[in-house]
Structure formats: C-alpha cells, structure tokens
Amino acid sequence: MKHWGVLWILVLLIQTHEILVKVSALDGFVSTRGVHLMLNGSPFFANGFNAYWLMYIASDPSQRNKVSSAFQQASSLGLTVARTWAFSDGGYSPLQYSPGSYNEQMFQGLDFVISEARRFGVKLILSLVNNYDDFGGKKQYVDWARSQGQSVSSEDDFYTDPVVKGYYKNHVKAVLTRQNTITGVSYKDDPTIMAWELMNEPRCNSEPSGKTLEAWITEMASHLKSIDGAHLLEVGLEGFYGESTPQKQQYNPNPKFQVGTDFIAHNQIPGIDFATVHSYPDQWLKGSSDDQQLSFLNTWINIHIQDAQNILQKPVLFAEFGRTNKDPGYSTYKRDQIFNAVYSAVYSSASSGGAAASGLFWQLLTQGIDNLRDGYEIILNESPSTDSMIAEQSQKLNKVRKMYVRLRNVDQLKRAKEIRDGQQRGANNSTEHPANLV
C-alpha cells in the first residue's frame, strides 16, 4: 500500500502543478532541446513583441509608468516575450558615452525594464549593438577607434579591427555583469532574460560572401558564452540565404540580394542557440502588389521553418514582422493579413512539434510617446481586430504549451507506475523466496 501512497502523492503534485502552471510558467531559464525552446522541462512557445524604446523611456523616472503600462497591456493579451535594445552608443543621452564609460541613469532605466518584465511575466531578448547608425551602431564604434588613431576606413571594419572588437567585447561584459539596482540580480544570472542578441540585423556589404561575419560571430559567441553560459544566444539575422546554400538564394527578396549574411552557415556556428528571421515584404518588394508580397511572405516563412527543422535542427523565431501604415493603400485589414500569415505558420509548426517557437511583431507602443511612431506601431486598443488576433494567437500557443506539459506529466505517471510495479514484483519475489533475505 505504501507504493500506492507514493503514487497518489505524485498525482496530487502533478495536479497542483497543472493549477499553478500559469503562475510558474515563466520561472527559470529558457533553454533548447533539439528544435524546441524549453522552459521547466516542456517546450516553450510564446507570442511576443518588439519595443526598442523601453530603456530610453525608463531612464527618466517620471516616464516609467509608460514602460509599466506597455508590459501590463502586453501581458493582458498573453504576450510573454519582448525584444529590446541594451545599447545606445554615443550621441544624445546614450548608455555608453565612449568605450567603457557608461551613463548610470540609462543603465538604471534598463534595470527598471528588466524588473518590470519580471513582474509581468515577460521574458526579454536583449540586443547588444545596432548595425545601423540609429543609437550609434557599428559606425560609432569605428568612429571611436578612428579618434584614437586607428586606421579604419569603413563601418565594416567593426567586424575586423582588433581595437573595435575590443570595445564591443568590453560592452558585452559590462552589460552581462551588470548588477540590477532594483532586483540585486546580475543580468547574467537573471532568468527574466531569455536570450542575448549579438547585433540588430548585422550586415557586411563590403564582403558579401559571409566569411567576415562568420568569423566575427564565431569570436563574439565564444566571448559571450565564456561570461554567461546560462542564457541563450542568437545573432540577430534577418534570414537572407548566402553562399553556403546558393540553391536557396531564390527565396531572398532578390536572388542577387547579398548583404554578407548567411542564414544557414551563420546559425550553425557553435554557441548560437536559435535562429531568427525578419519579415518586411513591404520594404523588400516595393512596387509589387499586395498579393505578391503576401505570397513571398508565406514562402519566406515556410522555407525558414523547414530549414530550421531539417538543416539547423534548432528553434526559429520570427523576431520582426509588420506592415507600415505610411504606404498608399494601407488598411488595418492588409496589416492583419501579414500578422495572420506569421501567426498561422508559427501555430501550425508549434502544434505539430516543429521548429517555429514565436513571432514578435514590430513594434508595440503605448499612449503618450507619439514621437516614436514609425508607421509599424501597434498601440493596443486602437485596432480591435489586431488586438483580437494577437490575443487569439497567445491563447492558441498557450494551449499547445499546456498540451506538452500534460504529455510530460503522463510520462511521469508512466515512469512512476513502472517503478511501483518493479518494486511490487521485487517485494513479491522476496515473499515467495525467503532464502533471498539471508
């Protein structure tokens, strides 16, 4: 009877886990197993958003209510992953004034972002530098090196100049080892952070083969992982196919479109835990019809899911997608079509055990920061149809996650039963053969 008692205790614990699963779902570090992100032993599928501005707004304590509002609104629609910047280099009110010199007020803004994400059950993807000039980017790093007498002539020297690479490595270390002034937890020890991103949309136009970026990613991935082995790491790629798979370049916006990146080769680098894809057919296929853009998007999404599943054997996140309201002929319906294409593909993959883990739309704004509108903004409660679509996707992915939790619990019950049966057989054998006790 004591074995049955142990079994029923296990059943009770599992039932309690089911009841509390919503509360505890985001505890712990996200990891990977095969093509799945994993959390608490089960595959992790999440609906998400981009909000690059969080640190900047939170650096002003009088504006922090806007950050809290964004997380609260996002959480109300079931959004549980946010991607944002952990960089702002040079210029007005930066995070990094100059190499190794930091703005404590801005860093405290990032502290607040992480603490609020934790409070509202949102995991964070933190990007560490920009490819573009906005917020400094790789150009600012090269300019800093030039001002110190380095012979650099191109922004792409960011990837090869030893001084510039040293600046970047130092920034990585400064961010990862930062101790949050609100929670007291070092960033590298905080499970609120889901992953680090090496760069937002890295490109190297001066060297289209992808070899320069491959060497840089390899070096920086190793450096970051030597400091923080607990968190996941991704590159920040847009998803363009390169020289390692010439037969797949037909799926790029233009078969001749090469920016020095390689979706397959760069995501196979040791230390890179999952792949990312960005999707902007309205930018990449200007002048084409809505139907052509939607057709491209469907193919773009599905080929990347297949390649993540079969070639990379890693999870893939659709880390940016959207449609600008600044184009002639824009309508909310047309934007919703883009959302539906991404959401349907992610759900179909997730529900069948595939590699797609999440879609993060660009970008979430909240009331009172109209100056950050870029045409892609989603301000919740302004477009009921989009809000409804976001909430529905969150609910569907949550059901998939719970399905995997239940399957895991069934496996636990089966294993417990096998142990109990084995113990019972052993006890019966001992009773039938007293000599075994001698």
From TrEMBL:
SUPFAM superfamilies: (Trans)glycosidases. Residues 29-363 form the Glycoside hydrolase family domain. One of its GO terms (cellular component) is extracellular region. It is found in: Secreted. Keywords: Glycosidase, Hydrolase, Secreted, Signal. It is an enzyme of class 3 (hydrolase). It catalyses: Random hydrolysis of (1->4)-beta-D-mannosidic linkages in mannans, galactomannans and glucomannans. Residues 1-25 form the signal peptide. GO terms for molecular function: mannan endo-1,4-beta-mannosidase activity. Its EC number is 3.2.1.78. Residues 415-438 are annotated as: Disordered. InterPro entries: GH (IPR017853), Glyco_hydro_5 (IPR001547), MAN-like (IPR045053). GO terms for biological process: polysaccharide catabolic process. Residues 425-438 have a biased composition (Polar residues). PANTHER family: MANNAN ENDO-1,4-BETA-MANNOSIDASE 1, PTHR31451. Belongs to the glycosyl hydrolase 5 (cellulase A) family. This is mannan endo-1,4-beta-mannosidase. It comes from Dillenia turbinata.
